[in-house]
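=== RUN LOG ===
request id: a7f3
mode: sequence -> structure
chains: 1
length: 420
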Amino acid sequence: VDPNKERREAVKRKITQYLRRAEEIFNCHLQRAAGGDNSIATGYSSLRFRPIRTLSSAVENLRRCKVVGVIDKVQIVQDPATGGTFILKSLPKSHVETRERQTIIPHGVPFMVKLLCYYVSEDSIFLHLEHVQGDRDAFCPITCSSLRFPGETLWSHLHSKYRVQQGSADSNTVQALRDRGREHGVGSSPGSSQVSIFSARTGIAPSSSVKPQGPDPAVWKPSQGASLTCGRLGEQPLSGQCWSLASHGHGWRAWAVKEEQVQLWAAEILLALEGLHQQGVLCRDLNPRNLLLDAAGHVRLTFFGQWTEVEPQCCSQAQEELYSAPEVGGIMEPTEAADCWSFGSLLYELLTGVPLSRNHPSGIQPHTQLYLPEGLSLAATSLLTELLQYNPKQRLGSGGIAKLKSHSFFSTIPWNKLVG
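=== RESULT ===
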């Protein structure tokens, strides 16, 4: 084994490029000669040339299924034959197909929701996805009424576990937080069983909500009288609750989520991103709504893939809330470094309890100094600073996820054991 990490990463990138090119040649020139027609059902997935026709199913098979819930852009569907539920997501086909965008169906990506099969109609592709269900007994089923999720998100777990201690904040603060919650549609009605890691606000608030103005880092300080107030995850308090502004004479007190727990969640997200990148798939707009929490407490990334007939679209709100990298939506073609920015933005929120967009309401520019609260470890501060670089070429992870995994923030993570 070559001891030089940079050379090893360069070889890996070259091999990936060669395999990707080989797949393009096969799809464009050899697939029809191999006996298939020109439809997506005879394509191949990822870089392993695994036939995906085994995942294809006739769209007529959906007729016997029953829709039991609608959540944003996906449906919870029940199979009457088994009684089990699955998630159905529809992808509208583009009017123009392009050979530049090949179909890639990732396979074997750790900590990502599984694609069980897919259906193709004249105007849509329907994804039959694994229904990840969180532990309903362990988590309070508080969801955003306009965007109920089919499971628990990481954010909703934080919302249920870390609550505002009303006695520790002045009554005006508590009432203001209650009012803000009502404005953004947070109710106490039971949600469904799947949970998003970041979900009282389910990651991104409804489009009708007003974008908040964050504090000026240069002048904003917590009041001496309040021992605990709420921050937000995006538009609302981070799942309820809880970055502490406890004034002990030195600014912010530590955010209630332990860094060791954040390290584990972050490692799981990173392994999912690495698996996607190895198979040629970029997320581009990774945001809290894409992070689920299963019954065992592990992060599960929602399914990401690439389809020839489907035009990639980035969530505009993810861009506004700084979950998407600055180059996404611009003239530059996004690279793997764009997902490293998204990872950094999510990690910023998990470590501080405050969304990046709140502390940087005007966005981040080339010479913006990243605002980091007191109390973060040196490793966490270093990682966030290296991830949230405006220039993608200077961003940690631009040369491959392996370098990111070797950062001191992850020094205690047993990577091989985690994958196994």
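=== NOTES ===
The CA atoms of residues 215 and 359 lie 6 Å apart.
DSSP finds ten helices and twelve strands in the chain.
=== END ===
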